[in-house]
Design goal:
Largest sheet of chain A: 5 strands, mixed
Number of helices of chain A: 12
Structural class of chain A: alpha/beta
Helix content of chain A: 40-55%
Largest interface: A-B, 51 and 50 residues
Number of domains of chain A: 3
Strand order of the largest sheet of chain A: 4-3-5-12-6
Oligomer: homodimer
Chain lengths: 293, 293
DNA sequence: CCAAGAGTGTTCATAAATGCACAGGTAATT
DNA sequence: AATTACCTGTGCATTTATGAACACTCTTGG
């Protein structure tokens, strides 16, 4: 069982250092009666006299000197702690936890890496998973989310980037099967699509309206697999523009439509959003996103 | 400037360790509303969020984890301190400060030495001076005083020993000048006495009534000098019985009178008198005094 | 020897912290 | 899907701690 009443120890500490109740009261900014009561209470609690009382002040006993030493180091440690904590909010140091779906790694990792290079004192941790990380449990400082703007109560949401999607095929496939002209022509081609039939993605709905299910010859739940299948020349498939941009072997088949766009959101918890550290990364990410177009 | 509100840090410490406000409140024995208010106040004071609040409890932030570590060691140190302080009152350890006039060293030192031998864990400090040490300033645990029973307000006074005084001469002196017979005979002898003419000591008053000042051939303010002068055969002088007892060269000249007796008192400060440590020494000194007769 | 200053300690009015009761929300279990 | 259990958060009554004023003691410096 540890001691309750840390404030009383603090009061006794000031009395021991100062030598008088009045002096300690002045230091503490309280009335001297309060100091006397604290000392009396603490001594009763401990069952030990901490001070010799006399008309010129309070002289610490052996026990009082012991307390003085311990409390002095405590005071030092608390002072250092406060210094760290107060400073922390205004500097870019410590950990910085970013989470997103694994798909966005190629976009985010370079941006985070350059941020880290600019702020050597920060340790960046980039976590990806299929499940959503929960900001309110402190699992992340910043989360990147896709789709509809999330409306959690304590979260601050900012637009990061518009993820445009288009229909692609490999150069090899187009050379073999020709470029589709008009909706009717699409039916003759082979497609890569989602494993589930009723995907909520707008471009897959668009596809379902124009392409019979039988033409969707490669079906997968994995976004990465779609990309590889397209490159292998399996058929036509949907990819983000930013991902296709890198690869000269890919040919865009139809014009992209704005209703296929999927926004990316930067989400932070209210409590962390204000901090300089988080703000710095948010700014950096948004700046990086300008080059993703 | 160091932090005020150590109790709030203690509360935050329990919350960080426990993970919930309710749990911490139970540990602390306070209402959970109080815990919430402490945390809010502390965070406002620091300008930093210490916890992520959510429906399942409070998750410490980076800052909160920092505080947890510091406060944990503080808690440990306080627990140790309390253990020491509580135990201290019931054991014979630490310092033990005894003061007296220098004259009584020969009596007290052997007694204190044997006490120390019985209690190896105690450090005994024996201070002598001509001025009175002041118990109320914590200058001593136990003081040995002579004369009228001191009646300081916060002091506990016990009788230790009755210091009997008699008139002595050296065997050599008696052989040379003969043993005085009756008051009239005294006038023919030489005396050792105080430098001041009107000493308040009863035996010196007795001497003044019977011996002309001119016969006081050796005058000193130092009690030790009186003894040496007697031993050198200078004349007749007053000595405590206990001091003369040791020396076979000394001859008692007249019977001792009870009104020459000077009591020795053991004086302690109320606050310290109850402690086992002080009691142990008091008991030991009184036992030793039985052999001083 | 006296007066001024500093310090302790106590009583009573006041301010501040605490406890209580209730509302609302989340997660786990059946 | 409904129920249970646990946790947070807030307004209000009450207890608790604090501050102000005064009495008293001791010390120090004329």
């Amino acid at each position: 069982m540890s001691i309750e009443a840390w404030d009383e120890i603090r009061t006794a500490f000031h009395v021991a250092r100062q030598g008088t109740v009045s002096g300690a009261a002045a230091e503490l900014g309280v009335h001297h009666a309060t100091v006397i009561r604290h000392i009396d209470a603490l001594e009763a609690r401990l069952g030990t006299k901490l001070f010799q009382r006399h008309a010129r002040g309070y002289t610490p006993t052996e026990a009082g000197r012991d307390l003085l030493q311990v409390a002095q180091t405590t005071d030092d440690q608390f002072t250092q702690l406060v210094g760290r904590l107060k400073g922390r909010g205004d500097t870019v140091t410590g950990e910085l936890l970013i989470t997103s779906l694994a798909v966005f790694s190629p976009l985010l990792v370079p941006a985070i890496a350059s941020f880290q290079a600019n702020h050597p004192e920060v340790v960046t941790r980039f976590l990806t998973a299929e499940r959503l990380f929960r900001l309110e449990y402190g699992e992340a400082h910043i989360a990147v989310r896709a789709g509809q703007p999330p409306e959690q109560l304590d979260n601050v949401v900012q637009h990061l980037f518009t993820n445009r999607t288009a229909l692609f095929a490999s150069r090899e496939y187009i050379e073999a099967h020709g470029m589709p002209e008009g909706d009717a022509d699409l039916k003759k081609h082979m497609f890569i699509g989602p494993d589930e039939e009723d995907s909520r993605a707008p471009f897959y709905k668009w596809m379902k309206e124009r392409v019979p299910r039988s033409q969707v010859v490669f079906r997968t739940t994995d976004a990465g697999a779609v990309k590889h299948a397209i490159l292998e020349g399996v058929g036509l498939g949907f990819m983000p523009l930013w991902e296709a941009k890198e690869n000269p072997d890919l040919v865009q088949v139809v014009e992209t439509r704005t209703d296929w766009d999927s926004p990316l959101w930067l989400v932070t918890h209210v409590d962390l959003h204000r901090t300089v550290k988080v703000q710095a990364l948010l700014k950096h990410l948004k700046k990086s996103a300008q080059d993703w177009g």
